[in-house]
Amino acid sequence: MVDFVSEVQEELRKDDYNRWLKKYGPFLFGLIVAIILGAAYLEWKKSSDAKVAEKMSLAYQQASEQAATNADGAIAEFTALSKTAPTGYAGLSLVRAAQLELDKGNILAAVTLLDQANATFESPRHKQLAQMKIAYILAGQGDYENVITRMTPLIEKGQPYEYLARELLGFAANETGDLTTARKHFSYLETIPGVPDSIQARAKQNLMLMSKAVAPTAPAETPQTPAEDDTNE
User: Is residue 20 domain-shared with residue 115, that is, in the same domain?
Assistant: First the structure.
């Protein structure tokens, strides 16, 4: 009797299992397949991205080597690479092409390429670095109004190139005759904690030169141009 009851219970459990499997089995099978396919896709994507990165790195290196002997060819290679490479390599390629154009004296072409790099980069630090390079070029050309327009958004607290941008603003303001604004920027850089020593020293020197320039007996001197290679970190 006990064996019979056990067999009946076992059959009932099998019936329940079969009904559950019939009802939910397709969904379970689909889930398992989806997990397997997802894992396979991730592995493929990882391998594919690695191959693309290796290919882009090689193309970038070849363009860099070409720059020493054929600037125009390297510019063409960097520009072409910027259209197919991931954003990092694309932006960096545009920056390199801009530097080659600048070396050739093509200011407008260099600025255009750096503007494209700024639009291509995803990282705020890289985007602002492209803007900083443009500002130094424009300052060298005496286009101070454009420098002021480009640098003003970069002086907000916590921005990666806050101090360099403010230094450029002070220099541009002084060159356009806005001495009040120039003093404000240089005084800020001279007194605020955390400003790199080199930038503080230049701010102090510029304030001294500005003071001498307004004295009746003092000869006029040009304020010191900010150095491009300093950072505010």
Answer: yes
Given 63, 98, 122, the domain boundary residue is 122
Euclidean distance between CA atoms 125 and 227, whole angstroms = 18
Range of the domain at 80: 16-122
Q: Are residues 78 and 147 in the same domain?
A: no
Phi-psi region of 67 (alpha: psi -120 to 50; beta: other; left: phi over 0): alpha
pLDDT tens string 150-209: 999 999 988 999 999 999 999 999 999 999 999 999 999 999 999 999 999 999 999 999
**Helix or strand (DSSP H, E) at 209:** helix 197-214
What's the domain count of the chain? 2
Q: Judge if pTM exceeds 0.90.
A: no
CA 180/CA 78 separation, integer angstroms: 43
The predicted pLDDT at position 42 comes to 60
The dihedral over CA atoms of 132, 134, 138, 140, expressed in degrees to the nearest 10, equals 70
Cα 93 to Cα 80, 88, 135, 211, distances in angstroms: 9, 9, 19, 44
Length of the chain: 233
**Tokens 């191959």 identify what position?**
51
Q: Among 122, 137, 166, where does a domain finish?
A: 122
Q: What tokens appear for 137 in the block?
A: 């070029």
Longest dimension (CA), the chain: 124
Nearest Cα residue to 135 out of 175, 181, 87, 80? 175
Phi, psi at residue 146, to the nearest 5°? -65, -35
Asked if residue 97 lies in contact with residue 66, where contact means CB atoms within 8 angstroms, the answer is no
Residue 206 shares a structural domain with residue 106: no
